[in-house]
Write a structure and sequence with these properties.
With 301 residues, the protein is α/β, with parallel strands linked by helices. The chain has ten helices and eight strands. The radius of gyration is 17 Å and the shape is globular. It binds the ligand CN[C@](CCCC[B-](O)(O)O)(CCN1CCCCC1)C(=O)O and manganese (II) ion (MN) (3 copies).
Length: 301
């Protein structure tokens, strides 16, 4: 089986410099070789070069920042991920900020329209053009994929391919008021850190899978934002929030998803190697690599 590494050095969905260097550091840390070690055929045709749209040519649309750049890059990513999936490969997208998931999930659902999404994150990333306060599109990809909120012409290429009952969240602990309303209104299932504490990660993952993939028959797209982990575990990321998943809880999710045999696509997002001292940056990159390995079959015994 082939894993196709899609390196996406992109930071337009948010304001901090450095998250575009995430893919470069993950690859330099040896991720391709580590996956080959696991028995995967690894295809990595170099990081994708996205031509930058100069900021003066990409003024905000309403509150949305860098809209044209985000849209263009995500559309390119959707094509690339879709192509790899159609070739029967498993696309592993390395971010870059989480706005990229608009592209990756669009690509996956083109090949696997029934795929379900497991979204591991401190945040719901479901703000609409109306509810966002930051205008940072990395806080919005899920709303575009669901086709909810006011239409934004720039993003008309994003089709409403995702259904509310086909996504489940694990790790939420920083959800805006507008997002809480949307989660309730659309009946979207979310296991926050409260549920992780209450039931334990094993039960939470089982309940999450039972919700989106009851017979374990549907393909799974796992979109992992490293800020789901506690900042002591993954410090070098743009929007850290205390009270997150332990190293083991994060890896358990990946191991359990792999065990279903349903994984068809994986995103490792929001690794920003420039936000902390080099030790913490290295630690965060190493965690990104080990999460990917666990989701792709690495076991402890
Ligand atoms: C919770 N929503 C935030 C963060 C989105 C994080 C995106 B991710 O990809 O890293 O998950 C924060 C919105 N504001 C809340 C009030 C204080 C300032 C930030 C947003 O900008 O929409
Ligand atoms: Mn490629
Ligand atoms: Mn996110
Ligand atoms: Mn997040």
């Amino acid at each position: 089986k082939t894993v196709a590494i899609v390196g996406c050095p992109f930071r337009g969905g948010q304001a901090k410099l450095g998250v575009d260097k995430g893919p470069i550091h993950l690859v330099e840390a040896g991720l391709p070789e580590q996956l080959a070690e696991l028995g995967w055929k690894v295809q990595f045709d170099g990081h994708h070069q996205f031509e930058e749209i100069p900021t003066e040519d990409d003024p905000p649309i309403g509150k949305l920042k860098n809209p044209r750049s985000v849209s263009r890059v995500c559309q390119a990513v959707a094509k690339v991920v879709g192509e790899h999936a159609k070739k029967g490969q498993l696309p592993l997208t390395l971010g870059g900020d989480h706005s990229l998931a608009m592209g990756t999930i669009s690509g996956t659902l083109e090949k696997y329209p029934d795929a379900c999404v497991i979204w591991v994150d401190a945040h719901a990333d479901i703000n609409t053009a109306e509810t966002t306060d930051s205008g940072n599109i990395h806080g919005m990809p899920v709303s575009f994929l669901l086709g909810i909120g006011p239409k934004v012409d720039e993003f008309s290429w994003v089709k409403p391919v995702l259904k509310p009952h086909r996504i489940v969240y694990i790790g939420l602990r920083d959800v805006d008021q507008g997002e809480r309303r949307i989660l309730r209104e659309y009946g979207i299932k979310a296991f926050s850190m409260h549920e992780v504490d209450k039931y334990g990660i094993g039960r939470v993952v089982e309940m999450a899978l039972d919700h989106v993939n009851p017979g374990r028959k549907l393909p799974i797209h796992l979109s992992f934002d490293v800020d789901a982990l506690d900042p002591t575990v993954a410090p070098s990321t743009g929007t850290p929030v205390r009270g997150g998943l332990t190293f083991r809880e994060g890896h358990y999710i990946c191991e359990a998803v792999y065990e279903t045999g349903c994984l068809v696509a994986l995103d490792i997002m929001e690794v920003n190697p420039s936000l902390a001292d080099s030790e913490s940056a290295k630690q965060t990159v190493a965690v990104g690599c080990s999460l990917a390995r666990s989701a792709l079959g690495e076991t402890l015994l």
